[in-house]
Amino acid sequence: MSKARIAAVDVGNDSVKALFGKSDYELNIPNVIARDREDRPVIGIEELNEKDPVDGIHIRVHSPALQDNNVIYRVGNLATKSDNATELDPGSSKSEEDQSLIMLFATLALDAVRAENSSDFKKTNNIVDATYLLGTGLPLREVKEGKDVGFRSQLLGSVHQVEFLVTPKYQGQKVNIKFDEVKVYPEGFAAFINLVMDNDGRIINRDLVDKQILIQDIGGLSTDIAVIRNRNVDDDKAQGFNLGVSESLEAIREEIRTKHGVELDSRRDVVDIITKKNDRNHIMVKGSRTSVHDITDRILLDLAKKEYRHLRNVWKKNSQTEICYFVGGGAMVLKEYLKTLNNSLDGYNIEFFEDEKESIWMMANAYYKLITDFDRKNNKAAAQDPKEKKAAVK
Fold first, then answer.
1. Distance (Å, rounded) from C-alpha 352 to C-alpha 76?
2. Three-state secondary structure call for residue 283
3. Cβ-based burial of 249 (10 A; exposed 0-12, middle 13-18, buried ≥19)
4. Less packed terminus of the chain by CB within 10 Å, N or C?
């Protein structure tokens, strides 16, 4: 059995993005859960085992870190079809919600149980013992409040078990998750690292390294504006705001339901309507293509004005800033509205990532770079320490 497997997990409000090992496996799971009973009905076990496990995550989660322990959940795509599905609420703290931990454990368990990872973990009968080196993050506001310390300690020093119930391919299997180390990074800092560092820890954007820049990371529940100077985040100047796109997406979803009688399963469906390349801002109503531009424009422009106000206030206090990068799933949703506002108002030097995947996966990529760099340095230090060398030989 080899050492701990690397996991970089971004528990985003919209979805969880995760990278594993030598970036050999990735997962993207909607951040939706629903409490469930053990015997959910399934048509034919053969049919069940032909499906993708990611579309049928049905688990019992046991962990001392959870407030509600030993509960059965539908997770991700399966949960979106439930009447009692829950998504993270605006105003909640990611570090203090059971849902964040359930999504994290479910994601790790899906990686651990794969046949391809049999050499990485010990497996006895239907129980996999999996050890991870985890890189993840929290909004800047929560890190400044010290919530990262409690979040990290909840994960370390305990065993967290995920039992797959009526899940394709993995039914009846259990995964015991332990952590060798957990690194919790502030989200704004992570975005900067992703811009300047490659997967091998080398600087790839020297022009950016010594500039004073802002990074405005717009998420579902929060917005972080990191102030980068002298290659570091200025902790005093950086700010986190309790403002994200979730509330606006929920308002769009509700108005579409009220006006058109169309029920969308989750906020992810709203995001797809807003950002898809063809027929953007259109839905099908009784088989007819129908525009919802009036709803999306009004609600999203109002949110974009609030986000722009935050940018303006932070830029005023950091007048020597050269550029602001907008990142995160929320930035993709608000991109055109923010560009229009900026063109008609202050004309700041702002930049968006045109590649949607690059923007949405930025945090997971950053955590991957940071945790692999930590692992690399750790191994190097161990190799140089005679005591560690002796232990390694034994």
1. 28
2. strand
3. buried
4. C
Both tokens assigned to 363: 């945090």
In the chain, the amino acid numbered 257 is R
Q: Residue 107 — φ and ψ, nearest 5°?
A: -65, -45
Paired strand residues for 284: 289
CA 206 vs CA 195, 232, 331, 359: distances in Å: 10, 14, 25, 20
Query: Would you say 328 and 217 are in contact if contact means Cβ atoms under 8 Å apart?
Result: yes
Closest CA to 161 of 57, 95, 16, 64: 64
Q: What are phi and psi of 197, to 5 degrees?
A: -120, 145
- Count the helix, strand and coil residues of the chain and give each as a percent rounded to the nearest 5: 40, 25, 30
Each of the 394 residues of the chain gets a pLDDT tens digit; together they read 447 999 999 998 888 999 999 988 999 999 999 998 766 655 445 456 668 999 999 999 999 999 999 999 999 999 988 888 898 877 778 899 999 999 999 999 999 999 888 888 888 989 999 999 999 999 888 888 899 999 999 999 899 999 999 999 999 999 999 999 999 998 877 878 888 888 888 888 877 778 899 999 898 888 889 898 877 778 788 888 888 998 999 999 999 999 999 999 888 889 889 988 788 889 999 999 999 999 999 999 999 999 999 999 999 999 999 999 998 888 889 999 999 999 999 999 999 876 777 778 888 999 999 999 999 988 888 777 656 554 443 4
Task: Please state whether the predicted TM-score (pTM) of the whole model is above 0.85.
Answer: yes
Query: What phi and psi values does residue 240 have, to the nearest 5 degrees?
Result: -120, 140
String of b and e for 101-123 (b: at least 16 CB within 10 Å)? bbbbbbbbbbbbbbeebeebbeb
Domains of the chain in sequence order: 5-186+364-393 (3.30.420.40), 210-360 (3.30.420.40)
For 100, half-sphere exposure in the C-beta direction (CA atoms, 13 angstrom radius) is 22
Q: Is 200 helix (H, G, I), strand (E, B) or coil?
A: coil
Tell the burial category of 388 from Cβ atoms under 10 Å away from its Cβ (0-12, 13-18, 19+): middle
